[in-house]
Design a protein that fits this description.
The protein is an alpha/beta fold. The chain is 33% helix and 15% strand. The chain has a 12-stranded mixed sheet. The protein binds S-adenosylmethionine. S-adenosylmethionine binds next to strand 3, strand 5 and helix 12.
């Protein structure tokens, strides 16, 4: 663990490395309408039982416990969150909680054009759209579904509505889209969005992962500097996963180098699955069941005390541990497909990216 995060003037629940509990990813569904090769490469999946999915009321109640303990950033994710019916209603209810200072949404954009207005009207603060390629035929090969045009229409809808802070996330993979870094930055510039390249991660569900498909941060910077010249890092005090850079013409972009330069030291994120399992790390194989005590009638104080004590004991530094395995030459896929079928919570699409 190389660095401690700075306190931001509010009392926080800190873990064993002094990392505060500040941000929560709420996965609202484990279903997805794409089958991206880096996330859902299999033909069949085991889904979370529907009766276990948290209602909007339960999601908001649990979120309220987290915000009382210091969380002020919430991101809606999945699966594909827009598959959850009436998502704008959830946004509206969540925003009745004044402790939430930043409510963001990560989506693949497929259903965005038709829902963006409702999200805007509900008060959603920010949108991130996953966009790995500008080529329709490549989109189809990568996601194993149609819909590239709808994604671009979704992005346009968000731009037209005037959402601030639009981001476009692209998983950069060798041999898949590594020739599109410049094109994606140029597209982002045209629509007024910041592009962030994500290193391909060996998370649960990434059953096709291998190190040779990872385009590292350094390789991305080298390719981009061949086109743009000098690229400067932006120095900022932030727990955000992206390292940000600026091009000579002042266009900014980000890289999320989880695989080669893990940022566990500043990770303040917890992840709640759609059925109420709370994970302290993207790589964690065990979670804490919050649905059970909630449905069994535990008091707010009891659940908050559980959350507090679990976070205070947190030692997770999953990405750093993966990197250590690489250094001794034994890094491979995180979890075998048979185990994923037995426990779908281990999938990236269940716990949200
Ligand atoms: N469906 C939504 C979307 O596509 O943005 C939200 C869920 S998705 C799991 C969240 C993010 O995780 C996406 O940007 C996706 O590209 C990223 N992701 C999934 N698997 C990944 C992997 N193996 N390595 C890096 N990023 C991954």
């Amino acid at each position: 663990m190389s660095a401690m995060p700075l306190s931001r003037g509010m009392p926080h629940v800190n873990d064993t490395f002094g990392r505060p509990l500040r941000s929560l990813r709420l996965s609202v569904t484990d279903r997805c309408n794409l089958r991206c090769k880096y996330c859902m490469p299999e033909e069949e999946y085991t889904w979370l039982p529907r009766e276990n999915l948290l209602t909007f009321e339960e999601l908001c109640t649990l979120t309220g416990f987290f915000t009382e303990l210091g969380v002020d950033k919430v991101r809606l994710t999945g699966g594909e969150p827009l598959l959850r019916r009436n998502l704008s209603t959830l946004i509206r209810i969540l925003l009745q909680n004044p402790r939430i200072k930043d409510l963001a949404l990560t989506t693949n954009g497929l259903l965005l054009a038709e829902q963006a207005r409702a999200f805007y009207d509900a008060g959603l603060h920010r949108v991130t759209v996953s966009l790995d390629t500008l080529k329709p035929e490549r989109f189809k090969a990568l996601t194993r579904r149609d819909g590239h045009e709808q994604v671009l229409e979704g992005i346009q809808a968000v731009v037209r509505l005037g959402f601030k802070g639009l981001k476009l996330d692209a998983v950069a993979m060798r041999g898949h889209n590594d020739d599109e870094l410049v094109d994606l930055i140029e597209y982002g510039r045209r629509v007024g969005a910041e592009v962030r390249f994500i290193e391909y991660m060996d998370v649960g569900g990434a059953t096709d992962w291998s190190m040779d498909k990872v385009l590292s941060r350094d390789a991305m910077l080298e390719r981009l500097s061949q086109r743009y010249g000098r690229i400067e890092p932006i120095i900022e005090d932030s727990s955000a996963p992206a390292q940000r850079f600026v091009l000579p013409d002042s266009t900014t972009f980000g890289i999320i180098p989880s695989t080669t330069v893990p940022f566990c030291a500043t990770c303040d994120r917890g992840r709640l699955t759609a059925d109420g399992m709370w994970y302290l790390c993207l790589y964690a194989t065990e979670g804490i069941d919050l649905r059970r005590p909630l449905r069994a009638g535990a008091s707010a104080e009891e659940i908050k005390s559980l959350i507090r004590s679990v976070w205070q004991a947190r030692k997770d530094r999953g990405a750093e541990e993966r990197k250590e395995l690489e250094q001794i030459g034994v890094r491979g896929k995180l979890i075998e497909v048979e185990q994923l079928r037995e426990d779908p919570h281990l999938e990236m699409h269940a716990r949200g990216g």
